[in-house]
Amino acid sequence: MTGIPGENRPESGDAGGQEQARQPLKDELKSSLAWLEHAALAGGDLARLAALELRLAAADSGKLVVLGLAMVPLLLLAWIGLSVLLGWLVFAWSGSVAWGIVMFIGLQLVAMAILAINCKKYAKSLSFPATSRQLKTLKEEASGTQEADKSDSTAG
Description:
Elements: H1 18-94, H2 97-125, H3 129-155
């Protein structure tokens, strides 16, 4: 008999007292806290996984650069071999050394022209064309707003 008599007795309009109303709230808070703890653990695990994968990617990117550098001489030799073969075929067909050399040099010039065209195309994207247009629009809007402010101040 430590409690106050009638403490848990339902009042008029009260279906079961306040103890029962508090219990679902406590359960909900406990489950929310458990969910947040689980989310924090999962987030920590994800961060560790991302850090480890970043370290692995950094190591592999170095290896990828070395392999790319090793491929450059091989690609150059393959290109020169193909060019010499085509020049030799022209020489064998025409019987003229000059036409073979012209074919060899012409093939190099065509390849350089294609590379130059692509360089110009990609250089345009380095100038941030969409950002430049947006900045220009913002400047025009700002100058239009300033002119409107000046005309309002002179009129008033």
